[in-house]
Write a structure and sequence with these properties.
10 helices, elongated, mainly beta, 449 residues
């Protein structure tokens, strides 16, 4: 036991030291007027109209609470907080000042500018309206050219571009074949032409990705160059709208509980990467847990990790790389926008980590120690060693776990609908009984219980 004890002591030393804002606006304020569990009921007619073959959209954006807003004519459809239902209402219910359809819409996210932060901008002809918490901001409506100098009226689409993705706080305005890039700090506009992208009837940023929509088709594009990613266009009803009988692969309807973030279906793996992003995996889908303002929507696995299909059994991150374990194989992706697969992968898990399989895995921030869980035991792997070898199994206070994750808040073990939190790796390994069970849906997905 001497060698094992020393190894675990070193591991402990290197391991961890060892709510939603309320919208104070009108009851009908989009994305903020209905708390969890009290959403207006959806019906088949609402969904049928939204999924209609002829139905393009005037604008699409996210509300301040992460729900998705679809504008068409005199109506707006809003996704539920779960993302699995939609309800429709007249535009005038939430924005009576408009008096007609919108040309474009965007949500502005600027923490350093409280007056603008979380504002919803709606464009109509030569004018723009700005709403915060469902209320029209003072001084609006204004001329588009006054609020955004150099940007013409009558824009077709607009989308905010975040600094990490565009090199500065920027808004992209689309009108015909021209893109107007507006710098929010310098207050200047630069016209661009992106012939490969073409006109956009609506534009959307979702989970650090940018989409141009025309009718029911959409393309993913690079916000700096306009380059369209391979594999597009695609039909937005297979991805952004829960249309019956549609969806990527088997379809949204067949995702069932796997695609419902608030269901109690177990997650097969969880991951906290070097950039602070947190992902949960089940049934060939992935969810982002760290960005509730963008909506906790299910997304097919291959959309985030290109070329990856099937189910993920375990996942962890180290040295700016993401490791996704599937059966006896492991794939490695660079933890950057786009998640590019490292050449030479997938590889045999035995060759890469010294084990044939794993139920769960985790690394802690700033540590090169990997913990692999199989059944009721955990084994330590030093990721800096070559070749990598797993240490002796150490018992856990759990007979089985579905997934595991470690952040600055501690170690989280997941089983069924519950998670168990430990302040550090050391306290997990020393525990004689498991920590109290807590709800995954309530804590990580903010679901109403």
């Amino acid at each position: 036991m001497g060698v094992l004890t020393a190894a675990l002591c070193l591991a402990w030393a290197l391991a961890l030291g060892c709510a939603y804002p309320l919208t104070h606006g009108k009851p009908e304020a989009a994305g903020g007027g209905h708390p969890h569990g009290a959403e207006p009921p959806s019906n088949d007619t609402d969904l049928a109209e939204l999924c209609a073959d002829e139905g393009g959209f005037d604008a699409i954006t996210l509300s301040e609470n992460g729900t998705m807003l679809f504008f068409r004519g005199e109506e707006v459809w809003e996704s539920s907080q779960r993302g699995t239902r939609v309800h429709a209402r007249p535009l005038a219910t939430s924005w009576p000042e408009l008096g007609g359809p919108v040309d474009a819409a965007l949500r502005l996210y600027r923490r350093q500018h409280p007056q603008e932060h979380q504002s919803l901008y709606l464009f109509q002809g030569e004018q723009v309206w700005a709403y915060a918490g469902g209320q029209l901001r003072p001084g609006f409506p204004r001329r588009v050219a006054d609020e955004f100098p150099g940007v013409p009226g009558g824009v077709d689409a607009a989308v905010e571009c975040h600094p990490k993705e565009c090199g500065g706080e920027t808004i992209l305005f689309f009108k015909g074949d021209t893109v107007y890039s507006f710098d929010l700090e310098l207050r200047v506009t630069k016209p661009r032409t992106w012939p490969g992208l073409g006109p956009c009837g609506a534009a959307l940023r979702w989970l650090e990705r940018y989409y141009c929509l025309r009718g029911t088709q959409f393309q993913r594009f690079n916000p700096l160059t306009g380059e369209v990613h391979p594999g597009y266009p695609r039909d937005l009803r297979d991805y952004f709208i829960p249309c019956p009988g549609r969806g990527h692969g088997q379809g949204n309807a067949s995702w069932g509980d796997a695609g419902d973030r608030c269901s109690e279906m177990p997650f097969q793996a969880l991951l906290s990467d070097d950039t602070g992003r947190i992902y949960a995996f089940r049934g060939g889908l992935s969810f982002r847990l760290d960005s509730w303002r963008d909506g906790h929507h299910a997304w097919p696995l291959g959309q985030t990790w290109p070329g990856l299909e099937g189910e993920v059994d375990a996942a962890f991150a180290w040295d700016r790389r993401t490791y996704l374990i599937q059966g006896s194989q492991v794939s490695v992706f660079l933890s950057e926008q786009g998640h590019r697969r490292v050449l030479g992968y997938p590889r045999a898990l035995q060759e890469e980590l010294g084990v044939p399989s794993a139920d769960a895995a985790f690394t802690c921030p700033r540590s090169a120690h990997l913990y692999l869980i199989t059944g009721d035991h955990v084994r330590l792997v030093n990721l800096t060693q070559t070749p990598r070898r797993a240490g002796e199994p150490v018992p856990l206070p759990h007979s089985h776990v579905d997934g595991a994750m470690c952040t600055d808040d501690g170690v989280f073990l997941f089983h069924g609908p519950s998670y168990y939190q430990y302040p550090s790796v050391a306290q997990l390994l020393e525990a004689q009984q498991h920590a109290p069970a807590q709800s995954i849906a309530a804590h990580f997905f903010h679901c109403h219980q």
